[in-house]
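User: Can you recover a sequence for this backbone? Please restate the input before giving your answer.

Assistant: Of course. Working from this structure:
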């Protein structure tokens, strides 16, 4: 982290002195000169966040637990910060915004609807968020990933938020969603829940899963939000990281030396075969640079004018540059072709967020969507401890039971995703033992 910090500051400093040497001849090669004069990227585009009237940076800050990184992102022009009670990073956000003009930063937090649904309980939890964030008010408090339409109407939550608004501690109410635990109980999807929220009228901002592989999942919600002037924030925008590293993990599991059930090996073999298909696509269409595909995936989201902002997890200073440089950019023709080919090939290795279409077929009611989301936190966002603790607390059956199953989820996946093998890997990642 300190190395990345120094690099970030060094680039800033070199950007200042670059002008003095740019005109010099025969001192540096053109390649080195170009690197020296390069300045850190800044946000180039701001979009209206629905009826909030606040113009947010098109690239916003998702999860980050480092106050120095958060502050540097703000200095680069990022003015929307997404956090939550359960993320445990609110103190870092509070430290980062200390001394800054609070009116120029839009902060969202989230509260889960737990057993105690009283107004008093929500107010107590809300005020704890205020204390952690070291701020007098929160711009938007969201209901955190409700699994039922009825949850959107929780009286205690809305009564508490109304009081916080009257006291000047809250401006807007929102909702986040990336699917339910399983489709059998209750039978509702992300689209149904967020559509109900849009029609409810009390929610001004929505945070939803959307990307180029599963664009059909959120497109209708985005259109509806545009019609109703509801601000939209995207998460899970980069489904790319699944292929890279798959083969290494498969090999490690096979070489572990432990006796594993035949069906477990069969599932991994199927997973490995599809990984090889994906590898063929990557070589054929020049998709070998995961950074390029990631950038194109984010530009795909920025192309959609129904999108307010794209939340990106920034855990170090390199991430700031990686994501902020995409601000104001759009997809070019060659990138569209690459995304289409990626979706056709390696895309089969991506278990869609907020999908759950396979879950009704599972006789053990394994919450596939939730487990794969926790594994995404573990592998894709660097939130290993959070993912492991969340998996440990998960009610009902976990993915260990999948190793001796007949693979009903995999047989019923409409996208051909090798779910059984992926669940096996997720269990290995998320298990403490």
């Amino acid at each position: 982290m300190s190395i990345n910090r120094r690099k970030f500051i060094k680039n800033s400093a070199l950007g200042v002195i670059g002008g003095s040497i740019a005109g010099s001849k025969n001192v540096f090669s053109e390649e080195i000169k170009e690197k020296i004069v390069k300045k850190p990227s800044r946000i180039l585009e701001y979009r209206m966040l629905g009826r909030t009237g606040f113009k947010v940076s098109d690239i916003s800050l998702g999860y980050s637990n480092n106050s120095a990184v958060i502050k540097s992102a703000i200095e680069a022009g990022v003015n929307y910060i997404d956090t939550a009670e359960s993320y445990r990073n609110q103190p870092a956000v509070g430290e980062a915004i200390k001394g800054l003009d609070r009116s120029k930063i839009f902060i969202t937090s989230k509260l889960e609807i737990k057993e105690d649904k009283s107004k008093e309980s929500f107010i107590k939890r809300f005020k704890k968020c205020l204390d952690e964030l070291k701020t007098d008010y929160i711009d938007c408090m969201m209901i955190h990933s409700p699994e039922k339409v009825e949850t959107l109407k929780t009286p205690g939550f809305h009564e508490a938020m109304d009081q916080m608004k009257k006291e000047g501690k809250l401006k807007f109410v929102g909702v986040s969603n990336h699917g339910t635990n399983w489709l059998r109980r209750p039978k509702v999807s992300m689209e149904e829940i967020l559509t109900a929220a849009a029609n409810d009228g009390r929610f001004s901002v929505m945070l939803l899963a959307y990307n180029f592989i599963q664009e059909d999942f959120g497109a209708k919600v985005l259109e509806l939000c545009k019609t109703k002037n509801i601000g939209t924030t995207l998460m899970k925008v980069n489904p790319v990281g699944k292929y890279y590293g798959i083969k290494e993990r498969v090999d490690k599991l096979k070489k572990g030396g432990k006796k594993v059930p035949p069906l477990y090996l069969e599932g991994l073999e199927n997973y490995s075969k599809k990984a090889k298909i994906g590898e063929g696509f990557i070589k054929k269409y020049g998709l070998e640079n995961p950074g390029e595909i990631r950038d194109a995936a984010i530009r795909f989201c920025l192309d959609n004018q129904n999108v307010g902002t794209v939340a990106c997890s920034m855990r170090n200073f390199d991430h700031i540059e990686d994501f902020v440089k995409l601000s104001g950019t759009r997809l070019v023709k060659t990138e569209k072709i690459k995304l289409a080919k990626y979706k056709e090939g390696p895309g089969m290795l991506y278990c869609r967020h907020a999908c759950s279409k396979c879950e009704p077929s599972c006789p053990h009611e394994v919450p596939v969507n939730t487990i794969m989301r926790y594994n995404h936190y573990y592998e894709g966002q660097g939130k290993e401890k959070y993912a492991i603790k969340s998996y440990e607390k998960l009610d009902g059956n976990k993915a260990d039971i999948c190793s001796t199953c007949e693979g009903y989820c995999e047989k019923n996946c409409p996208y051909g995703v090798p779910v059984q093998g992926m669940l096996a890997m997720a269990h290995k990642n998320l298990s403490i033992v």
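That completes the design. Confidence is low (pLDDT under 50) at residues 12-28, 181-186.
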